Amino acid sequence: MLNKNNCCIKYYGSELRNNWKNLKRWHEVTGIAAITGTDWSITGRLLGSFYHLGSYFTKYGDMDEIPIADFWKGGPLRICASSAGSPLKGYDFLQQTIHELQQEGVPVELEILSQLSNQECLKRKLECQVTFTSLHGAWGISGIESMWLGHIVMSCLDPWILSHYPDNPTVVICRENLKKKIQWLVSMGNNGRAIKSSETRSFAFQHFQTKTILKRYLYLFDLIQNNEKYLEGCKNPEIIYDFF
């Protein structure tokens, strides 16, 4: 019942990273279109796929009043990590780095959020100012949620995502610079971090509102369904989506 004329498949991280060879062959045989994700470790597995810039729906994309983290209370810089706990993300290395900084007297704390209700996770996130997402790939749904809350987001970003978001406000990290980047965030003080926070939130408003993501999907579905027509050029979409 499902064929290349009536469906497409959207992939997220681990499924495609772990099984990409079989999935690649399956798409070649069936001709069914694949939509891949944000970083090259996903998209690079299926080079004939349709890349989607912003597939991160969050409830904050629809809210009139979005809560924001408190950057003005005293105490140490609080960093949270709340993505899925894949070893690739580097949580162990993050914990080790935070411990080293604390031993050196740097005022920083870490909270790893796992197996919590959405309400409890939000409550604890709002008590932090920074979100660590991953030392692999890019930010996912947790990072986008944190942007809406005004968090400064730390993440590894590969050239693929930077080619699409060259001016994004992420603090770009790797194993070699993580310690220095955290020290830099601590040294910025509340004023500097608040300015960085406003940049992050503005980025979320620009790219990840629900209406913006819906428009992207609708145009992408049009492209997949009418791919051959668009390859010839001089063809506009039959529908221009102008809802607000």
Number of strands: 8
**Percent of sequence in beta strands:** 5-15%
CATH superfamily of the largest domain: Glycogen Phosphorylase B
Q: What's the rounded overall pLDDT mean?
A: 88
Task: Indicate how many domains the architecture comprises.
Answer: 2
- Rg, rounded, reads 20 Å
Shape: globular
List low-pLDDT spans.
none
CATH topology of the largest domain: the name is Rossmann fold
Strand order of the largest sheet: 5-4-6-7-8
Q: SS-based structural class?
A: alpha/beta
Distance between the termini: 35 Å
Major sheet: 5 strands, parallel
Helix content: 40-55%
Oligomer status: single chain
Walk me through what this model shows.
The chain has helices at residues 13-30, 40-43, 91-103, 118-125, 141-148, 159-164, 178-207, 210-225, 227-231, and strands spanning 8-10, 33-36, 50-51, 77-81, 108-112, 130-134, 152-155, 171-172. The chain is α/β, with parallel strands linked by helices and 244 residues long. The strands form two sheets. A five-stranded parallel beta sheet has the order 5-4-6-7-8. It has a three-stranded parallel beta sheet with strand order 1-2-3, with no helix packed on it. The longest helix is centred in the last third of the chain and has 30 residues, at 178-207. The chain is globular and about 60 Å long. The protein starts with 7 loop residues before the first strand and ends in a 13-residue tail after the last helix.
